[in-house]
Amino acid sequence: MTMERPLRSLLAALLILLAGCGPEGPDPLRIALNPWPGYHGVLHLAQERGYFAEAGIEVELVDVTSLAHTRRAFERGQVDIFGGTAAELVLAAHNDQREPRAFYAADWSEGGDRIYARTDIEAVADLEGQRVGVEPQSLDRMVLALALKEAGLDLDDVILKGVAQTDTPAALVDGRIDAAVSYPPTASRVEELKGFHRIFDTSTTPGGVIDFLMTDAELLESRRRDLVAIAEAFHRAVEEIRADPAGTYPYMARVQGLSEAELASTLDGIHLLGGNEQAVMADGRARQAVALARDILARSGSSHLETVAPERLVTPRIIEAANFH
Q1: What is the pLDDT of residues 206-256, one digit of tens each?
Q2: pLDDT value at position 2?
Q3: 323 vs 325: CA distance, rounded Å
Q4: SsuA/THI5-like domain: from which residue to which, for each copy (predicted)?
Q5: In this structure, are strands 131-134 and 159-162 parallel, antiparallel, or unpaired?
Q6: DSSP alpha helices (H): ranges in 76-159?
Q7: What is the DSSP string of 175-219?
Q8: Which domains does the chain have, with CATH numbers?
Q9: Residue 20 has what pLDDT?
């Protein structure tokens, strides 16, 4: 009897140890997000509401300050997914560290992307010969190109100046630039500057600027179920935002660092895309947006982008496997 109790205790301890040595679950999926309400606010809401947990997946949202930072985090393997535009998708594909694929269309701009200028510059046509601030290697060039084309001008007709989004208000006030491309939340600050006004926004080109959730081609295979769950969670969050602005805007505004009024104004210029609006991923519109971004970036000095094939960068596989209800 004196040996039986220690033996039982030893066996129990071994069973506990062996139980702890079982296979671990998959690593959390890390998603890099710059503060753009079209996906940042939506995914933060999905996490806060527990939509990822309900689907049995673990997600870590990594907030960064700019689109360039989201892309670099992805290229360096620091995150698995990132939110961004067709420009980031093209640049990430060109840089070759990974094989990016857009798998969900998060939103398109309907006034959210804007051009501001000194008040003596009355219209886009007056930008000829002026210094225009754009975030380096970003969608800003695409927005500017769309605006200039409407006015009968070209990127070669203006002087491009690299300016980080967060530095745009100061660059305008200091006189380093005459005009700038901007988007929320920075655009809310520019809107309040004296001596400047909005001369263009993407309300005139709906669907021309699309934001995506993007991942690596390898993860489309190894984490397919989890990517489907993220797409479904995004859809649920969009549906909740539409049905209950009063119940969702306060949290979204807080995580974005905006007032509720600023968030509401920003979302007025963005069309959030639910799961039932993902035809854009399969009908050619997403690929057209990617092709336009590639062509504009190539003309702006990014070499060898002609090798980037838009048809390879957009996949409808995840949305086709998802259950949006």
Answers
A1: 777 899 999 999 999 999 999 999 999 999 999 999 999 999 999 999 999
A2: 44
A3: 6
A4: 39-246
A5: parallel
A6: 86-95, 140-150
A7: TS-SEEEE-TTHHHHHHT-TTEEEEEEGGGSTTSSEEEEEEEHHH
A8: 29-109+207-321 (3.40.190.10), 114-204 (3.40.190.10)
A9: 46
